[in-house]
Amino acid sequence: MAHCAEPRIMSAAKLWLEGDAIRQFQRVAGHEKVVAAAGMPDLHPGKGVPVGAAFALKDAVWPELIGEDIGCGMRVYKTDLLLRKLKLEAFARQIEDRFLADEQRPALVFRDIWTGGSTGVRDTAARGFLTSSGEPTGAHGPLPVPPREWDSCVAALGTIGRGNHFVEIQAVEEVCDVIAAEQFGVAKHDVLIAIHSGSRAVGAAVRNHTLRELGNSILDGKALQQWLGLMNGALNVALCNRALLAWRVAASVRRCSWSLLLDSHHNYVSLETVGGAECWVHRKGALRAGSAELFLLPGSRGDHSYLMQGTGNGKWLCTVAHGAGRKMARKEAVAKMKLKYKRAELHRTALGSHVICDDNKLLYEEAPEAYKSVESIRECLEVHDAAQAVARLRPLVTVKC
Fold first, then answer.
1. 314, exposed or middle or buried, with CB in 10 Å at 0-12, 13-18, 19+?
2. Is there a domain that residue 3 lies in?
3. What is the CA 96 to chain-centroid distance, rounded?
4. Span 135-161, pLDDT tens digits
5. 67: in domain
6. How far apart, in Å, are the Cα atoms of 62 and each of 28, 36, 101, 111, 117?
7. How many CB atoms neighbour CB 328 within 10 A?
8. Higher-scoring residue by pLDDT: 61, 47
9. What is the pLDDT of residue 103?
10. CA-to-CA distance for 95 and 14, rounded, in angstroms?
C-alpha cells in the first residue's frame, strides 16, 4: 500500500480547529508508516499526538498514538425511569449521597477482570445487575499474564476519573429519526444513563510497561503481538470499569430495569480493511461507527448530547467524533471561569441540569464554555456523511469526580 497521500480533516466553514491540533495531525499523518489518516471535527491538541483522529498503519502499531487512556469509551443504558415522575432536585441529591459512598464498590479480583472483563466480577449483587442488563463479553485476543504489581490497579475500578470523564443521567428530548429510534428501542422522554470512562490506572501501567520493555517506537512482529495482548487486557478492564460505574448508579436510584444500548471504545487499535488491505487502525478520541451502528456524541455538561448512527464511510476510516471537543485549554478555562463564576453557580447549567462534583478545579476546567457546541460537531458529521442523528438528549444530572 502506498504512503498516505491525502490525510483528511472533517471540518466546516464555521467550525474552529486549533492550529496546534492541525499541526500535530499533519505531523503524524506524514510519517512513512501511516497509510491513511482522518481527523474528526472535535480534533484538539494532545500530548504530542492529536485527540480526535484515526490513523491506519500497515503491519505495525504505534502505541504512542493511543497513549495511556487505553479503552476509554462510552456506554449508554436505557432505563424504565419515568421522566414525568422525577423530582430532579431530590433525584440529584440521592445520587450524590449514595453514589459517592465507597461502600458501594464490590470486592474485585484484578486477574479475573483482565481476562474476562465484567464477566470476571464475582460480587453477587453486581453480577446480578450485569447479567440482567445485557453485559457484553470482553476481548478474546492474546492476553499475557499481567505483572503482579498491577493487581493494585483494582482499587481504582468503579471510579470515573478526572478530565472529561463523567456519568450522566439524560432524557430523550427529541427524536430525530423515527424509524432508527424505533429500531434501537428509543422514544421521547426515555431516561438514559451515559458513562464515559476507561481502564483507569491500568492504561498508565500498560504505557509505562511498553516504554520500559518495548521502547518508544512503532512496533511490528513479536513486539506488536505483545502490545496487542496488553491492550486487550486494558480493554477488558475498561469494559468492566464502565459496568461497575453503571452498577453503582443503579444502586443509587430506586429499583428500575436497565438495558444496554451501546458500549464503544474510542482509544484503541483494531485490524481493519483499508483501501483493500488489512491495516491497524489507531483511534485516539475517536470511535468506529459502521453502517447503522449506534453511538453517543456527548456535549459538554451544559449542552445536549446525541444518539447517532454511523454510515460506515470508508473515506473517514468508518470513524466519528467522540464528543464536542475542547476549544479552551484546562489552565485557560480555570483562569477565565474563576473570574466569571462563583463555585456554587457551576453546579447548575443553563439547561437546568445538576452537576455533582467535589473537585473545585475540575468544575472550572470542565465548564461548558471550554467546549465546542455539540451542534457544530453533529452538523459536520452529517454534512460529511459520517453519521446521522437518531435522538437529541438533555442532561439531567452530571457526575464528575
1. middle
2. no
3. 22
4. 888 877 889 999 999 999 999 999 999
5. no
6. 10, 14, 39, 26, 24
7. 19
8. 61
9. 57
10. 38
CA–CA distance, 367 with 333 (Å, rounded to integer): 7
Residue from 81, 150, 121, 142 nearest 243 by CA = 121
Q: What is the mean pLDDT of residues 348-352?
A: 95
Q: Look at the chain and report how many structural domains it folds into.
A: 1
Q: Which of 116-125, 162-171, 368-377 has the lowest mean pLDDT?
A: 116-125
Domain that holds residue 287: 8-60+72-399
Task: Note whether 381 and 337 are within 8 A (CB).
Answer: no
What digits encode the pLDDT tens for the residues 154-200? 999 999 998 899 999 999 999 999 999 999 999 999 999 999 999 99
d(CA 307, CA 378): 10
Distance of CA 367 to the CA centre of its chain: 18
pLDDT higher than 60, residue 4: no
β-pair type (286-288, 51-57): unpaired
DSSP string, 8-45: EE---TT----HHHHHHHHHHHTSTTEEEEEEEEEEE-
The amino acid at residue 398 is: T
pLDDT at 5 over 70: no
CA dihedral 252, 253, 259, 265 (to 10 degrees): -40
State the CATH number of the domain containing residue 364: 3.90.1860.10
Q: Is residue 370 part of a domain?
A: yes
Contacts 24+ apart (CB under 8 A), 14-17: 14/376, 15/41, 15/372, 15/376, 15/377, 15/380, 16/327, 16/372, 17/41, 17/43
CA angle in degrees (0–180, nearest 5) for 179-169-387: 35
Domain assignment present for 222: yes
3-state secondary structure of 146: coil
Residues annotated as catalytic are 322
Q: Please compute Rg for the chain using Cα positions.
A: 20
